[in-house]
Amino acid sequence: MSDALRVEGLTKSYGNGVDALKGVDLVVAEADFFALLGPNGAGKSTLIGIVSSLVNKTAGRVAVFGEDLDRNPRAARAAIGLVPQEFNFNIWEPVEEIVINQAGYFGIPRGQAKVEARKHLTALGLWEKRRDQASTLSGGMKRRLMIARALVHKPKLLILDEPTAGVDIEIRQSMWHFLRELNEHYGTTVILTTHYLEEAENLCRRIAIIDHGTIIENTSMRSLLGRLNRETFVLYLREPLETLPKVADMEIRQQDETTLEVDLVAGQSLSRLFDALNQAGLEVISLRNKRNRLEELFMRLVKEGNAALGQGRIAGDPEVV
Amino acid sequence: MNLRAAWIAYRTIVIREVLRFARIWVQTIVPPAVTTALYFVIFGHLIGSQLDDMQGYAYVDYIVPGLIMMSVITQSYANVVSSFFGTKYHRNIEEMLTSPMSSVVIVAGFVTGGVARGMAVGGVVSLVAYAFAEPRIAHPGVALGIALLTAVVFALGGLINAIYAKTFDDISIVPTFVLTPLTYLGGVFYTIDLLPDFWQQVSLVNPILYMINAFRYGLLGVTDIRLGLAFLITLLFALALFLIAVRMIQKGVGIKH
Ligand SMILES: Nc1ncnc2c1ncn2[C@@H]1O[C@H](COP(=O)(O)OP(=O)(O)OP(=O)(O)O)[C@@H](O)[C@H]1O
Ligand SMILES: [Mg+2]
Fold it and tell me: Please, are residues A21 and A30 in contact by the beta-carbon 8 Å criterion?
């Protein structure tokens, strides 16, 4: 079985001198559901652009189902369906036309293209809109239109660059369902980028994290989650705090008068914390988990990567993933 | 991608292109027809009636081939330059770049769309012309052949212009400052026999002169230059521009970072 995607030593320097990719190696197995995560500007879209023939690479090799992008570009392209980050259809064209024309570019006869277009537009809830100009669609509908368009030639590898950006919760969940079906029932390999880490956690079996043009993590979702051994809790107190209580082995930080933050390592007891706070005469009125566990880990990995590179994130913007 | 698939891809672009200009026919077909009608009324009838015959034809009849060619040239260019720039602007060029179709198919598709518009407008302008002038087609094969080749040359020119264009301004510079002057000086309204020697020689550098004269030969049977040379020059231009355009799309000039 050949790999769905094999990327070796891929680099990209844009004309303005930005080194967007600095030697990326990546293998995605056939039938995998793969998450590519990374902060803004990490190089995700650049990597996807090169794989799908929209960006010229500077150096390195890319093969799609064993077809080298340089030696056999057309076979490689034929295997890929792309849902790009930015809308890239002609907004003046009718919805159905956009999908059918895309099939035409892939050499699919019009009759067959119509059948495929109908199937995917219906599945994505756009059939009623088929005659409307794409400009009249809402943002979420436009994303779904791009998914329908990407599937019309039955690609073996579907690449989605932030497909759920700006999509409401209900539609997002139906998109998840749709993508999972595609992966499980049709064996389509899926590569997805997202800034919603719960999305990656929900859908993907493998995950790679890219930062500053370098892959800093590439592992299975399970083993990554297994490494999560620390959680941060936020505690809200009834009365303003005067002195910060001390609890053995626990790091307690004061956020404001009535808010505390506590890091707990796996195995540490929450009851012990509450007992200690009670003794200090502090009443906790509510409690929340600070961040999604994966987000926590993600932040840590990126921070470590940055420290290693000696590069800091934008000050005061630590939550942007 | 086999030949059949390439053909389907080509046809998809062509149909899309033809529908595009056909849907907006008020902007694409009507204006050149109106302009031509004005030329005939003003130059042909009002002024032309005061002029001597030119190469044995009444002035109004003499300018018909040049005016038809003028619309073929401007319309095939305009169609591709605006359509291809539009696909860059809306980024739907990416639909084609991610597909397995070759650069040759992309170029051929857009050029065919431009030729279709050039010929469609040329046809409408001919009908308008013959409302004012005597209908004549001395050598139909020559007329059709040179009109098609010329349309190909300028459709390719429009494509290359659009590949380089970064703003909407960039797509009107060449038509305004290069195409229109060369066409007017290419013998649409006069035979170069009327010019002083020096300007005759200068005119011979203008490729459009050859195209218009070959077409005039096709309709009226008179020409300032040798027919074979006209076809050769036009063909060479078409070939060279085609190779350049294909190469540029292949390399992603102006469309890939
Ligand atoms: N066309 C371009 N010209 C010059 N630099 C570019 C271009 N496209 C991207 N870059 C730069 O390359 C780097 C990587 O950008 P890229 O779009 O690949 O990031 P990303 O991971 O997709 O980010 P985001 O999550 O914001 O979409 C950034 O520094 C960006 O500014
Ligand atoms: Mg991106």
Answer: no
List the Cα angle A215/A219/A220 in 5-degree steps.
Answer: 145
Within 8 A by CB and 6+ apart from A271, the residues are none
The reply to whether B204 falls in a domain is yes
Torsions phi, psi of A217, nearest 5? -160, 140
Instruction: Give the pair of three-digit tokens for residue A297.
Output: 């880990």
∠ CA B140-B143-B144, nearest 5°, is 85
d(C-alpha A86, C-alpha A72), whole Å: 27
Tell me: the pLDDT tens digits for A7-56? Answer: 999 999 999 999 999 999 999 999 999 999 999 999 999 999 999 999 99
Residue type, A167: V
Q: Answer whether A309's CB lies under 8 Å from A22's CB.
A: no
Q: How confident is the model at residue A310 (pLDDT cuts 50, 70, 90)?
A: low
Question: How many angstroms is it from A57 CA to the middle of ligand 1?
Answer: 14
Pairing of β A259-265 and β A251-256: antiparallel
Cβ of residue A105 closer than 8 Å to a chain B Cβ: yes
**Taking CB atoms and an 8 Å limit, are A54 and B256 in contact across chains?**
yes
Give CA–CA dist B199/B131, Å, rounded: 34
The single-letter code of the amino acid at B101 is M
Q: What is the pTM of this model?
A: 0.88
Token pair recorded at residue B17:
């292109």
Task: Find all residues with CB under 8 Å of B203, minimum gap 6, and list them.
Answer: B185, B186, B187, B192, B195, B209
Q: What is the ipTM of this complex?
A: 0.91
Ion ligand 2: residue ranges with CB closer than 5 A: A 44-45, 85
Residue B257 within any structural domain of the chain: no
d(CA A259, CA A241): 8
User: Does B226 have pLDDT greater than 70?
Assistant: yes
- The DSSP element (H or E) to which B180 belongs, if any, is helix B180-184
Q: Give whole-number Cα distances, B27 to A175, B21, B24, B34, in Å.
A: 41, 8, 6, 11
Residue the block writes with tokens 């390719």: B156
Which three-class secondary structure state does DSSP give residue A220?
strand
Q: Determine the longest span between alpha carbons in chain A, in angstroms.
A: 77
Sequence ranges of the domains in chain A: 3-225, 229-321
Per-residue b or e along B52-81, where b marks 16 or more CB atoms closer than 10 Å to that residue's CB = eebeebbbbbbbbbbbbbbbbbbbbbbbbb
Using the mean position of ligand 2's atoms as its centre, give its distance from the Cα of residue A161 in Å: 7
User: What is the rounded CA–CA span in Å between residue A250 and residue A272?
Assistant: 10
Q: Which CATH number fits domain A229-321: 2.40.160.10, 1.25.40.10, 2.40.160.90, 3.30.70.1560?
A: 3.30.70.1560
**Contact present, B63 and B190 (Cβ < 8 Å):** no
What is A277-294 written as a DSSP string?
A: HHHTT--EEEEEE-S-HH
Measured CA to CA, the distance from residue B209 to residue B192 in angstroms comes to 9
Task: Judge whether B101 is closer than 8 Å to chain A, CB to CB.
Answer: yes
Q: In the structure encoding, which two tokens stand for residue B128, read together?
A: 């308008």
